[in-house]
Write a structure and sequence with these properties.
Largest sheet: 10 strands, mixed
Order of helices and strands: HHEHEEEHEHEEEHEHEHHHHHH
Helix content: 40-55%
Length: 437
C-alpha cells in the first residue's frame, strides 16, 4: 500500500519514464518475436547427426570454356562413366564410411527444394518434400545422412530391393498425415488421385529438417533409376559422404584437397568444392537472410534495452537525490541499505509491470490483426499446416512465451538501471542526509 501511495504521489515524475517503458515494451515484444520463433525452430532436432558429413560439388566444362572442354567426353555413356570413376575415387578413401549421389539438391540447406503430392488408398492428399538419390553399391541417402528409424532410433537400413521395386521411405509427419500412424511399413502410397504410380512404404524415419531455422516438413525419400547424362549433371547430382567415427576432420580435409581433389578431374568434370553440412547450414542462413534478420533484431533489442537502462539510471539518480531526506530518515530509524535499495527496486518493478501489461494489449491487437512478425507459414511453399507438437505453432503459447521473455529482459534491464544510482544513494549517512535538508 505504501508503494502504491508513493507511486501516485510521484505520478508526474513517473509519467515520462512510464511512457518510455510502455513504448519500449511494445517495441521489444515485436523485436523478440522473430528471435524466439527462429531460435525455437533452430533447436528442433534435425533428425540426423551432421558431424563428419561432406558435400562434394563438381563443376562441368562446356563449350564456353574453350580448350578445357573436350567434346568427345560428352558422348553417350562417357559422362556417366566419368562420374562413376570420380565416385569410386572418393568411395575408396579409407576415411569414408558411407556415400550416396544426391539428386536435384536433395541434401539439407541446399538451395533446391522439390515437392510432390502423395495419396493414400482413400485419396487423401499430403504435400511432401522429396529427396531423391541414385543408388551406388550399398550406399543410400538415409544411411549417409544419418537418418534414424522412427521406431528404433537406429540408423535406417533400406531393403536391398528398395530401388528396383520403386519403394519409398516416409518421415513421421508424412506417415501420420497419410495414415494416422507411423506403423505403415508395407502399405502403399500413390502419386495421383486415380491411384497411379504406387510406392510401397519400406521404412518410416524421424522427421528431418531441410533448413535448420525451419520446422521439419513432411518428407519422402525415393531412388532414381540411374544417372541421367546431360550437360547439367554437375547441377543435377551431388556426391555426399560420411566419415568414419574417430577420423580427424581437419587432417582429412587438408589431405583431401592436396591429394584427392587433383584426381577428381575426369572428362569434363572437375573438383569445385568440399563443404560440410554445417558449412551449408551457415551459408544458407546467411544467404536466406535469417542471419541478418537475427543480427538486426538483436541490435534493435539491444538499443531498446539501452534506452531503458539509461532512462532508469537518470530517473532514479534524480529521484534518489531528491529523496535524500527520506533516505536519511529511513537510515536513522535503522533501515539497512539493502532495505532502502529494495524499496526503490520495488517501485521500478511496479512501473515496469504496469507499463508492460498495458503494452501487451497493443501487441495482442497487432497479432490478431496482422499475425506474428515472424509468420508460421513455410517460406518455400506457403502451405505448411503448423504441426501442433511444437509450442511455437500455438498462438496462445507463442504469445505467452514471447511476452515472458520480453518482460524478463525489460525487468532485468530496468532493475539494473535502478540499482546503480540507488545503491550509491543508500550509502549516505543519516546525519549528512538530514543536514543537507
Amino acid at each position: 500500500m505504501i508503494l502504491i501511495h508513493q507511486l501516485w504521489n510521484q505520478r508526474r515524475q513517473n509519467l515520462w519514464i512510464f511512457i518510455e517503458l510502455f513504448i519500449a515494451g511494445v517495441f521489444l515484444w515485436m523485436v523478440t518475436d522473430p528471435i524466439v520463433k527462429l531460435t525455437a525452430d533452430r533447436f528442433i532436432p534435425s533428425g540426423s547427426d551432421p558431424r563428419g558429413v561432406y558435400v562434394l560439388k563438381l563443376g562441368q566444362y562446356n563449350a564456353s570454356f574453350g580448350i578445357f572442354y573436350d567434346a568427345a567426353q560428352d558422348s553417350a555413356g562417357r559422362m556417366a562413366a566419368n562420374y562413376i570413376n570420380i565416385i569410386r575415387t572418393v568411395r575408396t578413401l579409407p576415411e569414408v564410411e558411407d556415400l550416396c549421389i544426391s539428386a536435384y539438391g536433395s541434401y539439407p540447406n541446399s538451395k533446391s527444394w522439390s515437392g510432390m503430392q502423395l495419396f493414400n488408398e482413400d485419396t487423401l492428399m499430403v504435400h511432401v518434400q522429396q529427396y531423391r538419390f541414385v543408388p551406388v553399391g550399398e550406399g543410400n541417402l538415409l544411411k549417409t545422412y544419418g537418418m534414424t528409424d522412427a521406431h528404433t532410433g537406429k540408423p535406417v537400413e533400406l531393403p536391398a530391393d528398395f530401388a528396383l521395386r520403386g519403394k519409398i521411405a516416409l518421415s513421421e509427419q508424412a506417415a501420420l498425415r497419410l495414415f494416422g500412424t507411423t506403423d505403415v511399413a508395407g502399405r502403399t502410397v500413390y502419386e495421383t488421385t486415380d491411384l497411379q504410380y504406387p510406392h510401397e512404404v519400406a521404412v518410416v524415419f524421424r522427421d528431418y529438417k531441410h533448413y535448420n531455422y525451419q520446422q521439419p516438413y513432411p518428407m519422402a525419400v525415393m531412388a532414381e533409376e540411374g544417372l541421367n547424362e546431360s550437360p547439367y549433371m554437375d547441377f543435377m547430382y551431388t556426391i555426399v559422404f560420411r566419415l568414419k567415427k574417430g577420423v580427424d576432420a581437419d587432417a582429412f580435409e587438408e589431405r583431401f584437397r592436396q591429394e584427392t581433389a587433383p584426381r577428381l578431374s575426369a572428362g569434363n568434370f572437375f573438383f569445385d568444392s568440399l563443404v560440410t553440412f554445417s558449412d551449408e547450414s551457415r551459408q544458407m542462413a546467411l544467404s536466406s537472410g535469417v542471419t541478418n534478420k537475427l543480427r538486426l533484431h538483436y541490435a534493435l533489442g539491444g538499443f531498446a534495452l539501452l534506452c531503458i537502462f539509461l532512462g532508469m539510471v537518470g530517473t532514479f539518480w534524480i529521484r534518489a537525490n531528491a529523496r535524500r531526506e527520506e533516505v536519511g530518515i529511513m537510515r536513522s530509524m535503522g533501515a539497512s541499505r539493502g532495505r532502502i535499495v529494495r524499496r526503490f527496486l520495488a517501485e521500478a518493478a511496479a512501473l515496469v509491470t504496469v507499463a508492460y501489461v498495458l503494452s501487451l494489449f497493443v501487441a495482442l491487437n497487432y497479432v490478431l490483426v496482422n499475425g506474428f512478425t515472424e509468420p508460421l507459414q513455410n517460406f518455400v511453399t506457403g502451405r505448411l499446416v503448423p504441426d501442433p507438437m511444437y509450442w511455437q505453432n500455438h498462438i496462445g503459447g507463442r504469445f505467452l512465451a514471447i511476452s515472458l521473455v520480453s518482460y524478463a529482459l525489460l525487468m532485468l534491464t530496468a532493475l539494473i538501471g535502478t540499482y546503480i544510482p540507488v545503491r550509491r544513494a543508500s550509502r549516505i549517512s543519516p546525519v549528512e542526509a538530514l543536514r543537507d535538508e
